[in-house]
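STRUCTURE:
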């Protein structure tokens, strides 16, 4: 072969390789953006309720840092391995049910750390329940989303009393003053309104996910990013093996919380729920409106706000369900299918 011919071949090959490398780099650098756009679209399909309510609200998402190679080390998932064989781990509408043994928190954390979501943990501390706040927050500091960007929001009718607790908290804590309710029932009904209002004012600017919890719970074990999802509810530990007819749904058609006898999936406990700010906004707004209509009609739903909450979730299915391991109560003993008690609820030592 002549020298010029070899040079030509080398020149053509070099150009092709250069071109391929340039395209490859482009694809690599676009990856973050595509992931972002694709996932946001997946998160907010057109028909998602609440889309029109908080226009323009997007998840805060920092794309993966391209200069850090992503490595994930863990044993390969085995398709023949059943994570739990005695409990349902997927609802009939294909939402995962989170039990101990069904997830690998290292994989989930890796994914979370690339996205850096901001999480708001709201807690209601009203009246004598303020006395439980210290214990609650201490347990949250220890167990709640260890590596996460978490803000605490305390709803209280007595901000001075909360300040007097001199809480030693490593994360941002905001105190949100709410009206003085005459009793606990009014306070839990009012919480839907408070969450709705504060989403309009504050949460949509500050966080991506909202988690709502009661003060009379204490976290006993880690609660991590496995709980995150668009709309997430917890199966009530007192009814998780109950038949439909024994679930305490509101069955009177006069209430807005009415669920017909032949409908309903699980009974969810309203003292722990979470989701994207947008989904929680739609949930709390709908429940608030139902509660207002009931009030005008002189009817109170069977289990207060929890009845409205359950009604909502029959027709707006949760995208992830947490097992009763996430809201256990020591009074219910230690059945075999509860492998870990992540939360204890209802120990009211004031
Ligand atoms: C990406 O990570 C590297 C190494 O930790 C750091 O030096 C760099 O500033 C990061 N870049 C961005 C854009 O965050
Ligand atoms: C919620 O917002 C509405 C409208 O701004 C206001 O009238 C109402 O008092 C607020 N409720 C609470 C509990 O903050």
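SEQUENCE:
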């Amino acid at each position: 072969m002549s020298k010029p011919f070899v040079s030509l071949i080398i020149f053509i090959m070099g150009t092709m390789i250069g071109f391929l490398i340039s395209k490859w780099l482009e694809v690599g650098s676009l990856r973050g953006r595509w992931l972002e756009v694709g996932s946001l679209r997946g998160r907010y399909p057109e028909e998602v309720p609440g889309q029109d309510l908080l226009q323009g609200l997007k998840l805060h998402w920092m794309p993966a840092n391209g200069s850090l190679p992503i490595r994930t080390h863990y044993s390969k998932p085995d398709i023949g391995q059943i994570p739990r064989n005695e409990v349902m781990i997927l609802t009939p509408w294909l939402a995962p049910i989170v039990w101990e043994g069904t997830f690998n928190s290292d994989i989930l954390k890796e994914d979370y750390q690339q996205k850096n979501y901001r999480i708001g943990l709201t807690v209601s501390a009203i009246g004598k329940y303020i006395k439980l706040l210290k214990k609650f927050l201490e347990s949250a500091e220890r167990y709640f989303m260890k590596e996460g960007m978490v803000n605490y929001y305390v709803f209280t009718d007595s901000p001075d009393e909360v300040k007097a607790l001199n809480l030693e908290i490593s994360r941002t804590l905001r105190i949100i003053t709410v009206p003085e309710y005459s009793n606990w029932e009014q306070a839990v009904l009012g919480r839907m309104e408070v969450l709705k209002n504060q989403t309009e004012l504050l949460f949509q600017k500050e966080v991506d996910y909202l988690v709502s919890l009661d003060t009379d719970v204490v976290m006993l074990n880690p609660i991590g990013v496995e709980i995150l999802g668009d709309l997430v509810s917890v199966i009530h530990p007192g009814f998780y093996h109950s038949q439909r007819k024994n679930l305490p749904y509101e069955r009177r058609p006069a209430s807005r919380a009415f669920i017909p006898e032949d409908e309903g999936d699980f009974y969810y406990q309203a003292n722990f729920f979470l989701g994207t700010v947008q989904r929680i906004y739609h949930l709390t707004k709908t429940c608030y409106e139902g509660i207002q209509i009931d009030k005008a009609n002189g009817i109170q739903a069977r289990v207060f706000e929890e009845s409205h909450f359950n009604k909502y979730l029959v027709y707006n299915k949760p995208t992830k369900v947490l097992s009763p391991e996430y809201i256990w109560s020591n009074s219910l003993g230690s059945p075999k299918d509860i492998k870990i008690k992540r939360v204890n609820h209802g120990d009211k030592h004031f």
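REMARK: The chain has seven helices and ten strands.
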